[in-house]
Amino acid sequence: MNRFDRHIVFRLLSGFAALVAVLIVFFIVLHYVEFIDDFLDRGATMREVFLVYYPNYIPEIARLTAPLALFLSCVYLTGHLSQSLQLSALQTSGVSLYRLLVPYLATGIAVTACMFWFNGWIVPETNRTVLEFELRFLKDAPRVIETNNIHRQHSPGSYISVGYYDRRNETAHRISLQHFNDANRLVQRIDGVRMSWIDSLSIWQIHQPIVRSFSNGVETRQTLSRIDTALTILPRDLARTERDVESMTIPAAARYIRDIGRSGARGLGRTQVGYYAKFAWPFANLILVLIGMPLAATRRRGGQAMQIGIGLFVAFLYLTAQKITEPLGYTGVLPPSVAVWLPHVLFLAAAAFLLVQVRK
Fold it and tell me: What would the DSSP string read from start to end of 199-248?
């Protein structure tokens, strides 16, 4: 990279960092004003809100606002170069727009790679604290998908039914564990009053179980005080929320989706959309740079204010497209992967169109 390239990269990244910081403060203020009543009504202390909740929420805000911040930084910088005729001077001297795009492209790729790592491994760690806090103190907390009449497959030929699951105490009530042989005949059934998760041992304790075994048409019954068992079913598999996948790293989320799919859980659309978004959302940083640079490279009446206004409108369209397609993935109208990637593919095509049409 030459001196001009390094200057562009520095200006882009400094503007990006400043805008992310401003957007974080802006978001926290708006969020606090909106939810202060929930915090007070449900007993959250100001220490918990400002020393636990919001510090852990900052990575999620940074993840969400990074594409907008990089896009606005790109539009502002390119618009300044265009309005001051610096871009025209460079193009007149024989430097093509594609060559000028190199530092923008390098910055977009670097930020995309960093945000992929940040989104896939750092943000889930802090989101665990955020989601737990919201379940306790916010009226609009993530909705629990299933709490009653839950049915899961423990292993081939083995199933568990739960009458009611208490997420807070990690206790299942009115449980029934059924085992079938290869001929699909019931060979054993264990009914318990409740089943509690023992985190230190990673096992379930079934309290007051009645064990019924069936062989050659003969039933034997045994009543016990307790059974300790290691099931492949975990607490999170019995009481999923709409946003559980947000608190998981990419490998953990992949295992989670595979496991709950195998266990026969329903309503996986939102979970799968959240998983694919871990891959797709970071690419918004690169795509918006590819849109912002040619969009702002043309001088317009109204100066930089007009450039920024157009940039904000494009960002609004990008966000709107995602908000339209993602619910289609929740309900199964579109495959979750298609619902997540479709807006990015469309705007990448728009970026390619702008790069072809803009004056070289």
Answer: TTTTEEEEES-EEEEEETTEEEEEE-SEEEE--S--HHHHS-BTTGGGGS
Same-domain check for residues 47 and 96: yes
pTM for this model (two decimals) = 0.85
Domain assignment present for 304: yes
Per DSSP, the three-state class of 209 is coil
pLDDT, tens digit, for every residue of 149-208? 888 888 888 989 999 988 878 899 999 999 998 888 899 999 999 999 999 988 999 999
- Alpha carbon distance 85, 263 (integer Å): 62
Measure the CA dihedral 122/127/130/136, to 10°. Answer: -150
Q: Residue 188's domain spans which residues?
A: 148-239
Is 57 domain-assigned? yes
pLDDT tens digits for range 255-300: 888 877 776 677 788 899 999 999 999 999 999 999 999 988 877 7
For β-strands 158-166 and 171-180, DSSP reports them as antiparallel
How many domains, in total, are found in the chain? 2
Under 8 Å between Cβ of 354 and 288:
no
Domain match, 28 and 116 both:
yes
